[in-house]
């Protein structure tokens, strides 16, 4: 949360561990107020900083920022923050009634209660992204806030296909309007271009089933659109269309891209299951449970020949396997992206709503010359702890890119999976 400056005594913000893991730069987000980190948070960060995933990187980055501040003074007494505030650490000296000494959340809450007790007349606020911790804290009389610096609801205004009665939204990114029977692409301030009927994607196997899919097909195959965000419910065709567009532009005679790279977050992020090292087998076997939806979409695009069904059952052959064997298509965990440079790739990030804003920044900054990147996800289906509809990386990307002409955001509200799936989505 970024509070407003007032003439009253500075507020005291007590940070939970998940805030610093979500955004290591959170220390600089509280203006001229006082920021307190309980020692329990330091212990939790220390446990999280070992590893190669994004959570471990965030923990290490938080320690780096704290170390820089400690050079200016004793953090136990308070050191100055760039925004004019003060940063302090405190030990938990008392566990309050109803809270447990062996639970870290309760120790952090007890630290905040003690600070409140010692600072009569000052506003003490626990900042946490953990709903359970928030409920506990409120129950024992603490004021609680979510960390809201990167929250956004901007995506709710945009993404739909416009009609003639609509204005042009006042944005500069690529969008679409239906004028009579003609579909028109709008981009920048006053550019408009009628969309011609396109051939089916991936050598005729995929045709758009509705107007939203037609727009998505255009954005996914338009070389002027470098970043695409597709949101929508399961079955709307986001991932299938992205894969079909990627493979078509990578396998044709004069390919636009050298390789298709597909990744999706392994959730829950930050939990034990996020570390692929705990799973048995080689990297492909470890990834299989998480990447199965990608393989399902590939099976739709490239069906396995009937004569190979017996081999397919044993896992030795799939119709799309040749694309993987010659590295036209690569499926990777996101933990392996940091530090790489990825030029001339068609890069698809599936289930992007399960990424933090920091993760999205890391991914996009890996893209080199000639790379197109596509994010797909359902903003109503968040599986990652401490993220919600307005604080996830996909929503953050949309809010930051919405005025960039080389960006396109489309919300695909119509299911194209099957009449049964469409009815279930409406009735259940």
What report would you give on this structure?
Residues 3-7 and 268-274 have low confidence and may be disordered. The chain has two domains: 12-145, Rossmann fold, CATH 3.40.50.1010; 154-427, P-loop containing nucleotide triphosphate hydrolases (Rossmann fold). The protein is built from 14 helices and 16 strands. Strand 9 and strand 10 (191-194) form a beta hairpin. The chain has 428 residues and is an alpha/beta fold. It has a six-stranded mixed beta sheet. A six-stranded parallel beta sheet has the order 13-12-14-15-11-16, with helices on both faces. The protein starts with 11 loop residues before the first strand and ends with a helix.
The number of helical elements comes to 14
Strand content: 15-25%
Structural domains: how many = 2
* Superfamily (CATH H level) name of the largest domain: P-loop containing nucleotide triphosphate hydrolases
Helix content: 25-40%
Could you tell me the mean pLDDT?
87
The CATH class label of the largest domain is Alpha Beta
Q: What's the total count of β strands?
A: 16
Question: Nearest-angstrom radius of gyration?
Answer: 24 Å
> How is the biggest beta sheet arranged?
6 strands, mixed
For the biggest β-sheet, the strand order reads 3-4-2-1-5-6
Can you tell me the CATH architecture of the largest domain?
Answer: 3-Layer(aba) Sandwich
Taken from the alpha-carbon principal axes, the silhouette is elongated
Poorly predicted segments: 3-7, 268-274
Return the structural class. Answer: alpha/beta
Q: How far is the N terminus from the C terminus?
A: 36 Å
Q: H/E series, N to C?
A: EHEHHEEHEHEEEEEHHEHEHHHEEHEHEH
CATH topology of the largest domain: Rossmann fold
């Amino acid at each position: 949360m970024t509070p407003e400056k007032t003439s009253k005594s500075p507020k005291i913000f007590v940070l939970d561990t998940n805030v610093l893991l979500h955004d290591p730069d959170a220390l600089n987000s509280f203006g001229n107020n006082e920021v307190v980190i309980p020692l329990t948070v330091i212990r939790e960060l220390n446990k999280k900083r070992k590893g190669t995933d994004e959570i471990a990187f965030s923990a290490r980055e938080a320690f780096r920022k704290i170390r820089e501040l400690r050079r200016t003074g004793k953090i136990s007494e308070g050191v100055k923050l760039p925004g004019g505030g003060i940063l302090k650490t405190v030990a938990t000296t008392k566990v309050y009634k109803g809270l447990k000494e062996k639970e870290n959340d309760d120790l952090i809450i007890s630290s905040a209660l003690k600070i409140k007790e010692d600072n009569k007349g000052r506003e003490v606020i626990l900042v946490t992204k953990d709903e359970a911790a928030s409920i506990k804290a409120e129950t024992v009389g603490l004021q609680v806030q979510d960390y809201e610096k990167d929250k956004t609801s901007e995506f709710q205004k945009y993404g739909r296909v416009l009609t003639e009665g609509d204005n042009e939204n006042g944005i500069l990114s690529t969008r679409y309007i239906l004028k009579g029977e003609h579909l028109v692409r709008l981009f920048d301030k006053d550019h408009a271009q009628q969309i011609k009927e396109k051939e089916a994607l991936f050598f005729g196997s995929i045709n758009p089933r509705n107007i939203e899919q037609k727009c998505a097909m255009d954005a996914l195959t338009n070389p002027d659109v470098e970043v695409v965000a597709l949101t929508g419910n399961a079955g709307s065709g986001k991932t299938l269309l992205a894969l079909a567009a990627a493979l078509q532009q990578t396998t044709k005679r004069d390919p636009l891209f050298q390789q298709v790279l597909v990744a999706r977050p392994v959730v829950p992020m930050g939990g034990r299951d996020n570390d692929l090292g705990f799973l048995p087998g080689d990297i492909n076997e470890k990834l299989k449970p998480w990447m199965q939806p990608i393989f399902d979409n590939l099976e739709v695009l490239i069906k396995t020949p009937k004569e190979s069904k017996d081999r397919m059952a044993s896992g030795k052959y799939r119709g799309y396997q040749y694309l993987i064997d010659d590295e036209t298509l690569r499926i990777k965990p996101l933990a392996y992206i940091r530090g790489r440079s990825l030029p001339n790739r068609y890069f698809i990030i599936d289930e992007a709503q399960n990424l933090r804003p920091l993760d999205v920044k890391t991914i996009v900054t890996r893209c080199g010359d000639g790379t197109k990147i596509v994010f797909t996800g359902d903003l109503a289906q968040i599986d990652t702890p401490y993220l919600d509809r307005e604080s996830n990386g996909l929503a953050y990307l949309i809010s930051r890119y919405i005025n960039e002409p080389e960006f396109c955001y489309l919300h695909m509200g119509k299911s194209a999976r099957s009449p049964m799936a469409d009815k279930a989505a409406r009735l259940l």
